[in-house]
């Protein structure tokens, strides 16, 4: 059906092999038969947790992100380790970053946040039945947690204080779920 849009890989090479990210450069054939190159980031995938407390507030994080040199408001999230089940990754990341565990987990959706230059995907999970515990931050990881209402988070999207795409999408999902417009 979409054959007139498909690009076909001819060959390629790994041009950067870093600790976390890799960069691939492929020669491809365009739908019209012309050849060109595509460069993109290879990413193992990540999880995003939408942690909803019993009182209806949401557990959030504030973390400095070096590439943009500022503190961002985000949902707990993290990279999926090699051969790790995404749900296991979500449970691990929630506990490591916030100290919380959850008794109820629901898969929400998969998003692709940088389709023009990366194969990264993020699996979103709703976590409920939260129980507080001790943070287990990775070495060199610094963040703080706080709680906010969904309405406060929506206001943050509106006023531009929340700009992280995974967080914006997660907030919209929570709002739709709360209103009963969308079901899991």
Automatic annotation (TrEMBL):
Catalysed reactions, semicolon-separated: GDP-alpha-D-mannose + H2O = alpha-D-mannose 1-phosphate + GMP + 2 H(+)
Gene Ontology molecular-function annotations: hydrolase activity
Keywords: Hydrolase
Coiled-coil region(s): none
InterPro entries for the chain: NUDIX_hydrolase-like_dom_sf, NUDIX_hydrolase_dom
Pfam families reported for this sequence: NUDIX
Cofactor: Mg(2+)
A biological-process GO annotation: ribose phosphate metabolic process
GO cellular component: a single term: cytosol
Residues of the Nudix hydrolase domain: 39-170
Domain of life, per lineage: Bacteria
Similarity-based family: Belongs to the Nudix hydrolase family. NudK subfamily.
Name the UniProt record assigns to this protein: GDP-mannose pyrophosphatase
Lineage, uppermost ranks: Bacteria, Pseudomonadati, Pseudomonadota, Betaproteobacteria, Burkholderiales
